[in-house]
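Input.
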Amino acid sequence: MENLKLFNPKQLTSARISRGMTMKDLAESIGVSRQMISNYESGKTVPKAENILKMVSVLKFPRSFFSDKTPELNYSATYFRSQSSATKRVRDMQKERLAYAKMIYDKLSKYVNFPDVKLPELIDFPLDDITDDTIMQKALELRALWGIDGESPIGKLISIAEINGIIIVEANMSDKKLDAVSRWIVDRPFIMLTDNHESLVRRRFNISHELGHLILHNGIENIYELSTKEHKELERQANLFASHFLLPDEAFMRSLLSTSLEFFVDLKSHWKVSIQAMIYKTHQLGLLTEDQKLYLNKKISWNKWRTIEPLDNHLPIERPTLFKKVYEMILNNSVVAENILNHSFSLPIDELEKMLNVKINENFENVIELRPNLRLVKS
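Output.
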């Protein structure tokens, strides 16, 4: 029974999936059968100490992770900002990292109070009942709630979102087919950004898209139960929310002094939204005919701007800072020793460094957990 307490099979599954490995991959790496890995993960067999050490070495997770309690997550849906060709393996890798972000949040929140969550009232009814007018209303409500002038471009979006209680982290992985993932975990929204070296404008749209999911689609428990048509509608709604949030109709129209491609380049530096998204918005507003939109899109293709637009390499990227600030606040005020805090996360150094955006002392895993020395005092 003691061995069972030292090994949590669910944690092995989590570590394996987060590293993008199949049971077969892991089995071959440590020299056991695939069936044995299956037995480990189902709890039928407790691995010997030598095999636990091999898995620690291959998966690069600290030993403490495999004996930790698996974090309890609520049953809300997980949303992915991805292409349809994004694989289940990649989506599952990100879902596990969302759980790790929650583990970090839980540890940090023992010492520091995070900002309260400020979002409009969440929509909790079926997808088909969500109208475009409702989506626009919620986007404008969010701007107002966050103190963003309805006439102005949004400044540092990540900083504003973090101030208003949204947890945003960068993932320790990259995949061009998946940009972001979001989920309500208990009572707080989490957004995880894939490290794709994307442009500022793409990152801002990704975050706005995920905010749309978090606000609009609270009534959806499982996106995998949606039909292909429903999933397309889900994504369209999140894109529409992002468009209204970043480009309020009236303010955007007043700034649109020309519909030439050259003017859209200039407008990009003002709104910090992609040229392609602005052309789409302009067409939506009835200010471009279908032929005009087609012409502009052909010019974009001719200029090879589909993946990299003008200014993409000049507008500085925004990065999350909330976890880093809280982590440093704890250490700077000597609330807990650095090694003890790092050890308490029970996560790999590479994952911690990416999510906290700090450099971690590589020797922290060897720290001995300090316990009080107690003895019975006779009266």
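The beta strands are 78-82, 167-170, 178-185, 188-193.
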